[in-house]
Amino acid sequence: MTSLNDQESSKGLAAHEIPKLFDPIGKASISLEDYKQAHAESIRDPSAYWSQQAKSYLDWYVPFDQALTGDFSAGDIAWFAGGKLNVCYNAIDRHVRNGKADQVALVWEGDEPDDIRRLTYLDMQRKISQIANALHAQGVRRGDVVTIYMPMIPELPMTMLACARMGAMHSVVFAGFSSEALAQRISAARSAFVVTADLGKRGGKSIDLKGIVDAARAKIDCEDIITSVMVWERFFDQDSETAPYDMQPKDVRMDLLVAGQRPCHVPEWMDAEDGLFLLYTSGSTGTPKGLLHTTGGYALYAAFTTKNSFALEDGDLFACVADCGWITGHTYVVYGALLNGATTFVFESTPVYPDPGRYWDMVERHKITQFYTAPTAIRLLMRYGDHHPAKYDMSSVKVLGTVGEPINPEAWRWYFEAVGKSKCTIVDTYWQTETGGHIVTNFPGVTPMKPGSCTFPSYGIDTVILDPMSGEPVTEANEKGHKEGVLAVRQPWPGMARTCLGDHHRFMTTYLKVYEGYYFTGDSAYLDQDGFHWIVGRVDDVLNVSGHRIGTAEVESALVSHAAVAQAAVVGQPHEIKGQSIAAFVMLTDGFSESESLIKELRSLVRQEIGGFAQPDLICATQSLPMTRSGKIMRRILRKIVCNEVESLGDTSTLADPSIVDELIAKVAELQ
Ligand code: WTA
Fold first, then answer.
1. What is the pLDDT of residues 100-128, one digit of tens each?
2. What are the tens digits of pLDDT across the range 602-654?
3. Which of 162, 332, 434, 498 could form a disulfide with 131 if both were Cys (CB 3.0 to 4.6 A apart)?
4. Where in this chain does the record put each AMP-dependent synthetase/ligase domain (predicted)?
């Protein structure tokens, strides 16, 4: 079991100052009391509740007869099994049939603000069908895994939807990951098919994605696994007979292949429990886990949470500015809005290009109705001042969303006042790659807001705070009036991941066996006197850097692959913009000494092995690390050192060499 003492000790962001209650904003569909009643009803009989929702949110080719089977203890959870449907049909075709053929389904804004594309539902149906036919021509069949390593261009969501259409599982790898990380994911999923693009564009710079794919192919057994690499061209020129990149034997010019296909493809009818996609995510130990999400439950949960958490209405232009490489991009860029027949916004660039008014300029120009980003972006933009959002007419926005980490009240207030002009609901949506969609969030017009609290559980989610030691629900409040412990969920919901690909044992031990009978989130949290949920942070060795989830074990394993590093210990330290940044302690191998060039090499090694976003801000080289006599590194002490909490180091007498602590304190002070 995890001890609360091991949790990330400080967010350093005044995260839990005395909260002020803000009244719900917007048209209330129901009152808070109604919500409480409806929520109680939704968890009383989950099977009946979700059965009704599944019929109303999705079109089924063959109806299901039982909503839920299985439970947490056996880990054999299935939703709507036996029912058949296709997620792409539900996201696209049925809207074409229902009179929305000419409605814009996707608005894309590229790296340059004047680079805009709009695709109607009919355009999407035709193009996705062509892509599905192209994938089929390359040998992709139902059940295959297609790895997608692409920039944020409309072809990315369309390739994902084409996979869904033909019953192949997509495994999207964020294009910021290195060739090593990409190779690892291709090989772990034994994915014979890779779809990429020659170039990505961000902040005026080009990124050679194809070069990274080629480097990945040179690693481990990748090239043996891969049978086809389909390459979109970022600036496709139909008349050009040669590819604008160095073509390898298995490469296919995707734009040409797609253009030659008929724009009609009959969707594959899938069982609700067939895999829809894999998404690799970091855990506290070992290599990233390939989480499997399935067809019916995930689609329902994506549609349901988008509709309810954001009060989505017909005609809305929903903008989630996350990358499709993360779960937020899957659920809220690709699937959520389209399943509801709204319009989704796809954004390729950064919040500060060409200037820090970019988001707000887009809101004004496109009349965005819901805008969804992460606290790290809000904190960054807040620094540039109020005059950026003040320049734009953002009256189209009804709801502003936040996700990825606890939002500090200062950033919340800026988002509310400077961006939302105190007229928009801020939805603080708490969820994870594993949960598929929001599990704790406020609802616009319904739930009062407290800056920094994600408020109450979403429908069908039965949250509970457990005592980390006993595993029993916390019933007593502490001296602050808080019921504090770890956050868990008491019963299955449709959007939850079903397994880790090829390693169900790992799924069970990480999520369902830590506290018998519960799904364990890995986060510590408390309920305040009013029952509002407050997330404190991870209790495991998972860091959250700019909303990106990074396992300390992954960074450590990258560092120890250097000959000079005998052992490495990585911890999180508070960072004003990123939330957390990475601090690495490396114990040098005999014969090696510290130098500026070594530190540089170690930084670039992490970049090579994982990606630039995982680079440590601080690397402290040392001859020894604080270890117990049995050789276990005491990360708790390192955490306190980097958080400047040395007065509360606790007991260091169990250390093999207590004198190392003072040495490290002095060294870190020098480096910080
Ligand atoms: C954290 C991202 C506080 C949390 C969707 C969780 C949050 C991890 C919030 C999952 C929030 C996400 N408030 N913390 N609103 N949203 N988190 O899998 O620690 O990349 O466990 O999914 O992010 O990160 P993941």
1. 999 999 999 999 999 999 999 999 999 99
2. 999 999 999 999 999 999 999 999 998 888 899 999 999 999 998 888 888 88
3. 162
4. 98-493
Taking the CA of residue 538 as reference, the ligand 1 atom at the shortest distance is 19
Q: Is the pLDDT of residue 19 over 80?
A: no
How many CB atoms within 10 Å of residue 365? 13
- The predicted pLDDT at position 406 comes to 93
**What are the beta bridge partners of residue 102?**
none
Tens digits of per-residue pLDDT, 43-92? 999 999 999 999 999 999 999 999 999 999 999 999 999 999 999 999 99
Where do runs of H (alpha helix) occur along 385-514? Answer: 387-390, 409-414, 504-507
As given in the structure block, the two tokens for residue 118 are: 């709009």
Distance 538 CA to ligand 1 centre (A): 9
Respond yes or no on whether the N-terminal peptide bond of residue 354 is cis (omega within 30° of 0): yes
Residue 436 CB contacts under 8 Å (≥ 6 apart), including other chains: 293, 297, 298, 301, 302, 327, 331, 494, 495, 496, 497
Say if strands 499-500 and 463-466 run parallel, antiparallel, or are unpaired: unpaired
**Atom nearest to 402 CA in ligand 1:** 15
Number of the ligand 1 atom closest to the C-alpha atom of 542 = 19
Strand 499-500 vs strand 519-527: parallel, antiparallel, or unpaired? unpaired
How many angstroms separate the alpha carbon of residue 382 from the centre of ligand 1? 21
Structure confidence by residue, pLDDT tens digits, 236-245: 998 899 999 9
Rounded distance from Cα 178 to ligand 1 centre (Å)? 23
Q: Percent of the chain at pLDDT above 90?
A: 89
pLDDT in tens, 459-490: 999 999 999 999 999 999 999 999 999 999 99
- What pTM value is reported for the model? 0.95
- Sort strands 270-271 and 84-85 into parallel, antiparallel or unpaired: antiparallel
Closest CA to 337 of 297, 377, 368: 368
The vertex-161 CA angle with 160 and 167, nearest 5°, equals: 95
pLDDT digits (tens, 9 = 90+) for 536-594: 999 988 999 998 999 999 999 999 999 999 999 999 999 999 999 999 999 999 999 99
The answer to whether the beta carbons of residues 298 and 306 sit under 8 Å apart is no
The residues, any chain, with a CB within 8 Å of residue 59's CB and separated by 6 or more, are 85, 89, 90, 94
Cα-to-centroid distance, 301 and ligand 1 (Å): 17
Enumerate residues 6+ apart whose C-beta is below 8 A from 555: 568, 570, 582, 584, 606, 610, 614, 616
Q: Do 584 and 620 meet the contact criterion of CB atoms below 8 Å apart?
A: yes
What lies within 8 Å, CB to CB, of 483 at 6+ separation is: 465, 474, 475, 476, 477, 526, 527
Residue bearing the CA closest to ligand 1, atom 20? 549
Q: Which residues line ligand 1 (CB under 6 A)?
A: 281, 326-328, 403-406, 428-433, 454, 521-523, 535, 538, 544, 549
Residues 234/198, Cβ–Cβ less than 8 Å: yes
Compute the mean pLDDT over every residue in the chain, rounded to the nearest whole number.
94
Handedness of CA 328, 331, 337, 340 (dihedral sign): negative
Under 8 Å between Cβ of 85 and 61: yes
CA-wise closest residue to 440 among 422, 416, 460: 460
Residue 360, phi then psi, degrees to nearest 5: -75, -30
Q: Please tell me the distance from the alpha carbon of residue 178 to that of residue 359, in angstroms, as a whole number.
A: 27
* pLDDT exceeds cutoff 70 at 14: no
